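#data-curation
PF: Archiving a pair of folding outputs for the training set. Convention for this channel: one message per protein, sequence first, structure tokens after, nothing in between. First:
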Amino acid sequence: MTENIIMVPKAEKIEKKLEIHNDVRIDNYYWLNDKENPKVIDYLNEENAYYDAKTAHTKQFQEDLFQEMKSRIKEDDESVPYKKNNYYYITRFEIGSQYPIYARKKGSLEAKEEILFDVNKLAEGYNYFKLSGLSVSPDNNLVTFGTDIVSRRIYTLQFKNLTTGEIYPEKIENTTGSASWASDNKTVFYTQKNPTTLRSEKIFRHVLGTDPSKDIEVFFEKDEAFSTYVYRTKSEKYLIIGSSSTVSTEYRILEADNATGEFRVFQPRERDLEYSIAHYNNHFYILTNKDKAINFKLMKTLDESTLKDNWIDVIPHRDDVLLEDISIFKDFLVVEERTNGLNKIRIMYWDNSEDYYLPFDEETYSAGVYFNPEFDTNVIRYGYNSMTTPSSVIDFNVDTKRKEIKKEQQVLGGKFNKENYKSERLWATAIDGTLIPISIVYHKNTEINANTPLLLYGYGSYGITIDAGFSTTRLSLLDRGFIFAIAHVRGSEYLGRKWYDNGKLLNKKNTFTDFIDCAKFLIKKNYTSKDHLYASGGSAGGLLMGAIINMNPELFHGILASVPFVDIVTTMLDDSLPLTTGEYDEWGNPNEKEYYDYMKSYSPYDNVSKQSYPNMLITTGLNDSQVQYFEPAKWIAKLREQKIGENILLMHTDMETGHGGASGRFDSLKEIVRDYSFILDLNGYTKI
């Protein structure tokens, strides 16, 4: 089937002038932002039909690939049980099921199983279903839960009696899906979203059995740059309301046994002062960047003296160590750090008798402390995996220093052997001389040369670090001779907080040039060539994809851009859209000319030009709450208008889902198959 037979979608051009700072931008596809317009849906369906037609020859390959990936999954899987308040909680799957079953056992793992929720039953009749925010009352008799059936991350909050199995009639709409219990077992605090911007902006108090419309508003976050949330400390003593922006935080505290009391400010917000709090033994422990501690330090203060002038150092700031998180236990403190890009887990006894790190041996890996709800224990649970090592859940006894692997991810199918794969960390030199880390993995039998296909992944925003982890689905690439690589570009916190600061605001272009320099490095070192190099990124990583193809399209044979944030100037000028005002400190506020000019200079949509672009697959969801569907829709329309050459350009819109894709575990697998089959086909693989 040829391009001449299949009608290439062509969006209507309707000129729209966008003017600010005496600068006029012409947006011919602005009209696509109205999904109530039937013509918009028609256009998205045309693009889907075109995708189906152009990939029809891979349909059997996609089905075979799906079965291959599915065959590696242990379908009747279950989580390692964790204990809280004399119950063991377990999440498990049954063979053939899309969704989990949440269960618990009282007192012992030998006790009778009590099913909290079978999500497969709840999801019947829905194209999308997400259960979130399970929170059990202190007396173990009730549970809150949130459901989303649209994929907009807007949850309906409900209550279930775990003794009778009754789901109570009251429903609280437009929430984040989670709630925190006061000590009285009848009062909860929850977060409500703004119906237009979806910003988490209000905290309410609800008493079980009362009309939700009469709930008491206990806090309203008026600053549109902040979002708010509520939780209960591990010590169970306090309820905490948090407010956070990109560069500032603020907390309010209330004793959990005083449900109708007034929350009081812990430390008033200050620009560029970030802190988070945990409670233990009449002290609050504060992870903070106070006093220019860019990589954060740990401080503490007494319960009654919470203002910052009373904080004292526990772990001082270090220039070469990023302090990421802490977990508090009765006899010791667990500290999560990052040094030279790698995770470290540190054990510190309160009595100063011991202070040591857990040993990790691989060159590049991912490790982190698991959910540890128990306070009085000498065992911590953590997770470990690498690009060659499946995920393990490990219990570590801090006294004996012995570890017990509670579960190692099973890779079924009989073909996987970790010894067949190699992983290493490379360092590319950026245009400004900075060394950029790259984690790579490949099959040991793969011949590495200019003909080796390589998929380079990147994100690089919000300080989010993509660690070198394991993936069963990725084996379908590695076993076909692909190298998979992660470019740890600036904009993450891989090499500390400065790494993030040097990849945001007026330094944002470093993220793009770093990725390009990683690509050039891999080509120069003969790991691949431009004819076999592919790039992938989603959301803010989709912005990265859009920027690099405008800057250096010749470097890449194919691009996967998932839910891409590509119309950054127009979006950041529209404060009615989700996320906009809260992200001025990430991208800049284009209402200010300096930021407008800078953002416009790299905006993927604004910089589409007449040139040859790589082969591309763009994916989105109609109900996306993070990156609206119309950004990729406008982008592909403009790319179709401008691109030169015969390279394929496809877009697929999931008409049922949003930012996170499909909700079922097998449906989400099909999305990976769709992406992988595209680049495998480009590289000549269409058979198992």
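PF: Second:
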Amino acid sequence: MGGIVVRALSGLLVCLMLFCQSARASDFVFSNAPGPHGVGLRVVQQYDFSRAYGSKTDPVTGQPHAEAGRPVQTLVWYPAVKGGAPVRYGDYVRAAVTEDNFGLSDAEVAKAASTWLEKRWKGLAAAKIQVEMSRPTWAVRDAKPEPGKFPVIIYAPSFGAPAHENLTLCEFLASQGYVVLASSSRGAFGREMTQDLEGVEAQVGDIEFLIAYARSLPHADIEHLGVVGYSWGGMANVLAAAKDSRIDALVSLDGSIRYFPTLAASAKYAVPSRLTAPFLFVGARPSTIDELLASHQDMSESLMNQMKYADLYRITMTPMVHANFNSEYQRFAPDSGWGFSEYSRDETSLAYSWVARYVLRFLDGTLKGDPTGLSFVANKPANNAAPAHMLTVSFRRAQGAPPTIGGFASVLAKQGFAHAVKAYQSLRSVDPGFQLSEGDLRHWGNQLLFADETDKAINVFELATVVYPTSGAAFEALGSAQEKAGDRIAAKASYAKALTLDPTNANVIQRLKILSES
């Protein structure tokens, strides 16, 4: 591979992990002030018993494992009453070493934590590690929650990354009135993530588990739900949204939905008609046309470019490459690292801070109903006082309702069921592939009859006779609904048409006889 693929894989699998050269990490400066709330942090060790994890036998000792499900250690940031001793960065590290092993003793946790940063960021000086481990964050462990309910954000980390990877963004959102949950990125059956559909769907499953867990939190407003993902997590969250219509907002931070279009397309359920949540994609500066040509990627499969039923906001951050969207990288990578080759740490830190602002305003607009939020995102950067040449913005509005029976029903609920034929033809003109089967229409009409919505049922059955004009069963169903509504003349006409299409239909013969005699 060459060009963009090499850069993407480097960012996903290498640059975020180990750096072999000796280097000093400079301080990362987040320029955004905290919001009006304090930030609480809970670490919840729990299992998803609906999924297996690992093998029945320990591959090292050969001893059988105790039965357990998939460990999903969960970090929960939430709006809290201000006050208390802040969490140190080392507290996040100590949580990371227990993410899939809840049975470690305090001594084992301390030992593992003491070498965690050194292993992850080789060449980092011991003195610098000690400084960073003791550096305070905004969060307070188990702080008293603020009263009320707050929208829920699920954060999905990058390929194989810990849950606290973007703790700066997560704490910032909590301070602004959001409950944020995250778990580490791990493969289907072990700690190592795998670069395939099984791997990304393991993370999709973790997102689903965290959504379910959020329902148990008394301060979480699960009716307003967003998912933010970075890199690999920025593909997992899109697939999760394709499976779960409860997700109201999507944010992808230079997500792999951009870099692995073929892999995303292999999830057959991830189709444009199932992706209707407003979508904010914040990307690194684009590759050159030469790099795109050298990569040999088939961009025609780009799911993001096909998402025509969702409002799509695209922001390009000129100073940032893939790794800069990760606050852990900003904090620990050497000044000579890939992410600072063209722009300084100060410039990329400022850009990261602006990314956080745009994410916040997008979520405020989609989950809190703040009209100024989305106008901010779609605005010209200069009108938002953004630094010159830092970012560009484009906006593509959704092309109406998605071509699904649910989307069609939504249109009829607004326009009126009497316009069913016209609305159906309009959807077909947008997407010729959209078609409701005769069975779909008859089942829908029968459900409306059962709900005593007879007039609406008639409209749906009329549509069935237009779409399937040679179906005697469609006209029979229409006649039955008209008869129930007391329109005997219309019912007789529909039954008569049904009989011409199927002269052997005994029920239609009987209904016509009854209507003629009474």
